[in-house]
Amino acid sequence: MSGHGVGRPIEILLVEDSPGDVRLTREALKEGKVLNKLHLAQDGVQAMEFLRRIGKHTRAPRPDVILLDLNLPRKDGREVLAEIKGDENLRRIPVVILTISQAEEDILKTYNLGANCYINKPVDLEQFTKVVKSIDNFWFSIVTLPPDRGR
Hints:
5 strands; five-stranded parallel sheet; alpha/beta; single chain; Rossmann fold; disordered N terminus; 5 helices; 151 residues
């Protein structure tokens, strides 16, 4: 048993069109022993439908973290990120960008798109686990705050 008393898994939305990378991400989460529910969107349009609970996603949970690949069909990761950060209801969800290269990561940082962090693909288990753990800690410190009773 880990130290936090939160019983529910982390809801993760993975926006990724490569089945290989999806498989690696699942393995990384298992390896990192992160209690999670992984939801998959295969392109940017699907991702936004999930986040906005459109169509078949009306019962979609709000993700605790979004793992976002940049090179997506139909609507690319930059557009998705801009939409998330421009949306009052979604902007507080941490977004982790999956990049292919260090160079791409540097370019992105200069655009300052509001992502919480970047990790390289193919998802390096160790790097990924570190990021997830830091989100994990960050997330649990938020989740364990007493509920606001609306007073």
